[in-house]
Structure formats: structure tokens, C-alpha cells
């Protein structure tokens, strides 16, 4: 397999086009204007690419070969800026999945703590290590004055 200069130029053009088009408008769209209010979307956009080629000397009765390539793009909505009456307000995008997952972690941790407390209490009651009234230290007696 051989790669010509025309093919290399086309691949670079494709990469260039993808990088130029990776922007917040691809996640949210353009800013929205309604009367005196402007909504500016904000997103975190990342991209990466790779490439390769081959120039090893060919073994006997074989062709030189080499290829490669790859590209990745990620975009995450962060929120919007709302411009109204000369004031700017930030409204973050809430990732409900993260909120639910965090609540589940807290619930599981709470259940594990409650379970260990119940086991410890049940173990203390069945083993008889709970102090009885006979083994409890006596409380100091109150003394009355002058009577």
C-alpha cells in the first residue's frame, strides 16, 4: 500500500476542517437573542488527532508499507450566560447523572455505617459485655447542707 502526496493533503484538509468546526456552536448552537435578552452558550470542547506512516526497508520480495491515523472530539455543555438589562447571570448546566450517582454513593456509605453499628450493638448484647447495674460505677451521693 502506497500513500501519495495528494492523499496526505486530503487527510490534512479533513483534520483541519474538523478542528476548525469544533466549537461551542456545535454543542449548543449560536447565541440566542430574544428582545433585550441574549443567551450565550458555554461548552468545553476538546479534540486530538494522530497519524503515522511507514518507511522501513522492505524485506526480500515484499513492498514497503505503513499507515495510521485517528481523531477524537469531545464536547460538554457547561452552562449559559444570560445578558439582560445590563447584567450578566451564569446558569450552569446540571449533570443529573452525576448528582444521582453521588446520592447513591452517600446512601450506600450510610447503609454500611448503620449496618456496622447494628452488628456491633447486637454482638455486644449477645456476648454479655454490656455493663449491668451491678458492674456500673456508683454515682456520687448528694450531700445536703445543714439539715
Question: Would you give an account of this structure?
Answer:
There is one protein chain. This protein is an alpha+beta fold. The chain has helices at about 5-20, 25, 95-125, and strands spanning about 30-35, 35-50, 70-85, 85-90. The chain has 2 domains: about 1-55 and about 65-95, no CATH class; about 95-125. Helix content is about 35%, strand content about 25%. It has a 4-stranded antiparallel β-sheet with strand order 1-2-3-4. The longest helix is centred in the C-terminal third of the chain and has 32 residues, at about 95-125. Residues about 1-5 have low confidence and may be disordered.
Helix content range? 25-40%
Radius of gyration: 35 Å
What structural class do the secondary elements suggest? Answer: alpha+beta
The backbone outline, from C-alpha atoms, is flat
Mean pLDDT: 76
Order of helices and strands: HHEEEEH
Enumerate the strands of the largest sheet in spatial order, edge to edge or round the barrel: 1-2-3-4
Distance between the termini: 114 Å
> What amount of the residues lies in strands?
25-35%
What's the total helix number? 3
In terms of per-residue confidence, which ranges show pLDDT below 50 for 5 or more consecutive residues? Answer: 1-6
Oligomer: single chain
Largest sheet: 4 strands, antiparallel
What is the secondary structure topology, with strand pairs?
Layout: H1 5-21, H2 24-27, E1 32-34, E2 37-50, E3 70-84, E4 87-92, H3 96-127
What brief labels describe this structure?
single chain, 147 residues, alpha+beta, 2 domains, four-stranded antiparallel beta sheet, 3 helices, 4 strands, 26% strand, disordered N terminus
Amino acid at each position: 500500500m502506497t500513500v501519495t502526496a495528494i492523499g496526505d493533503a486530503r487527510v490534512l484538509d479533513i483534520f483541519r476542517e474538523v478542528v476548525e468546526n469544533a466549537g461551542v456552536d456545535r454543542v449548543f448552537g449560536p447565541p440566542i437573542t430574544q428582545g433585550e435578552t441574549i443567551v450565550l452558550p458555554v461548552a468545553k470542547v476538546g479534540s486530538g488527532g494522530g497519524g503515522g506512516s511507514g518507511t522501513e526497508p522492505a524485506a526480500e520480495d515484499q513492498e514497503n508499507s505503513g499507515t495510521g491515523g485517528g481523531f477524537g472530539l469531545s464536547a460538554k455543555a457547561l452552562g449559559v450566560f444570560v445578558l439582560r438589562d445590563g447584567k450578566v447571570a451564569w446558569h450552569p448546566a446540571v449533570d443529573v447523572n452525576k448528582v444521582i450517582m453521588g446520592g447513591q454513593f452517600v446512601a450506600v456509605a450510610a447503609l454500611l455505617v448503620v449496618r456496622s453499628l447494628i452488628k456491633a450493638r447486637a454482638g455486644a448484647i449477645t456476648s454479655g459485655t454490656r455493663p449491668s447495674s451491678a458492674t456500673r460505677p456508683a454515682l456520687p451521693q448528694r450531700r445536703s447542707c445543714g439539715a
